[in-house]
Amino acid sequence: MEEGRVMDMKEVIKIVYHKEVGNFLESLIRHEKLGEATCYICGTKVTLENFMALTRKSGRILFCCNKIECYRSFNDILRNE
Amino acid sequence: MIEVLNILLEIAKLIKKYGLIVLVFFLFVVLFYIVGYFFSILLDEDKSDLWRGKVYKFLYKLTKKRDAEKKYIANDVAGRVNLARKQMPFGKESIPKALRVEWIDSGQVESYVPKEGELVVKLESAETQEKNITSLAQALVSRTALVGIRYIISKPLENAIDLNLIKKLLSEIKNRAILDWYMRNEYMPKIVQNKNLKEWNSKIVEIDERGLFTRLLLVELDSYGKKIAGRLKTTEMESEIENLIEFLYKIATKTYGVDAPLDYITRNVKIGVLIVGETSKILSYGIEPYVHAFIYKLNKKIEAIYVLSFSKEFLGEHDEKNSKAFGEIQTFLQQKIEQDFKVERDFELAYSCIDVNGRERKAKCIRYIPIY
Asked: What are the tens digits of pLDDT across the range B184-226?
């Protein structure tokens, strides 16, 4: 009960450790049968070095590179309205 | 420090006079306070996170183990951001929401598939913790603040509000390195990029310096979002919000003796402000002008009335001698409003702010909801 209450009140964000991003991205791209990952905002190819965030929206995995502007815009499109 | 030494000297004298029983009693009191302190930490999830973070940081520095590093990062981020959030002055509800961070376990990394709507963010090593905190604070504000009105307001205005809300959140962490990192790498580069953003930002900053950003503007925007929930965007709505900011900006930059509109009445916003700050006025005429102004706002069916009190003379020269009398009259006005009118005191927040001349002022913001 208490756990559920806390979960309702808090915004949960999953985090991935920078040294584990490689394995995470590779397996996810393979699982989702994506050719490559590109930034949803600027279209740049997302690599191990420039990956910043991702989410699933309407079933699709959306990636975001580490440009400050892209990360900001990426958060904008994800907000709960 | 001198006071502590004096207390210790007094205790030493007592021990000398009454023997070891005093020492035992003293140790018991100290132990009681220590246990109480740790108990209060255990009861507060955010404080516990912060302390767990400190322990794991120590373990990480000692062992350099990844597991300790990850636990340090997660506990430290959540503890700092959530404690800072609690320090931010709002009305009844805090904005943004509280944060919970969850690592994708090392063992699950190759099989983890994000769920619909779930955000996964990469965090860097513990050595760049300020960047980690900033990244998550930004995500939190973007996702949980200004809910319900983002589709109405222009991008530059939305960005200006977000940037200042993140700045406030990070400044409440009270760690210069984190705030400096944010100002240098995100806030300033963003502000200089866009002329409209720069203009909105300067207005938000002025409003914030008078203490009205979180206590009034965000409270009203939150209320606005609830009121228009589910409705299509109209140009009227966009103007209502922009003009609300202009209205508050005029109050925030009002100089002594210059009038500014104190009521803002549109289709979806009906607020009034009562500024109790001119020492000469309140000492000469008492509370009557303010009571009349309050009645005037009630007659206009205003939905929220803010009584803003500023110690000494707001936006002008102050008079130390009369400050006590001024404070008493402020209290009397508050009592009179609450006794004579059908109003609900929504919240009352005491704070310090900077006036247009750069002087620090003690202030109070009370939000009343009239019952018609």
From this structure: 988 999 899 899 999 999 999 999 999 999 999 999 999 999 9
d(CA B261, CA B242): 15
| The residue type at B156 | P
Burial of A39: CB neighbours in 10 Å, binned 0-12, 13-18, 19+ = buried
- Assign 3-state DSSP to chain B and report helix, strand, coil percentages, each to 5: 60, 15, 25
Handedness of CA B93, B94, B95, B96 (dihedral sign): negative
Domain ranges of chain A: 18-79
Structure tokens at B248: 């508050």
Name the DSSP class of B215. Answer: I
For testing contact with chain B, the best of A7, A15, A56, A67 (most B CBs within 10 A): A15
Burial of B254 (0-12, 13-18, 19+ CB in 10 A): buried
pLDDT in tens, B280-335: 777 778 888 999 999 999 999 999 999 998 876 544 455 556 667 777 888 889 99
Nearest by CB to residue B111, choosing from A13, A16, A27, is A27
- Tokens 């997302």 correspond to A46
The helix or strand, by DSSP H or E, that contains position A17, with its residue range, turns out to be strand A10-17
CA distance A21 to A35: 17
> Is residue B131 within 8 angstroms of chain A, CB to CB?
no
Query: Do the Cβ atoms of B360 and B84 come closer than 8 Å?
Result: no
CB contact under 8 A, B103 and A12: no
Q: Rounded mean pLDDT of chain B?
A: 87
Which one of B44, B82, B120 would you mutate to disrupt binding with A, by most A Cβ within 10 Å of its Cβ?
B120
pTM: 0.82
> Which residues are registered as beta bridge partners of B123?
A17
Q: ipTM of the predicted structure? A: 0.88
Six-digit token string for B282: 């309140």
- Within 10 angstroms of residue B89's Cβ, the number of other Cβ atoms is 18
Number of Cβ within 10 Å of residue B326's Cβ equals: 23
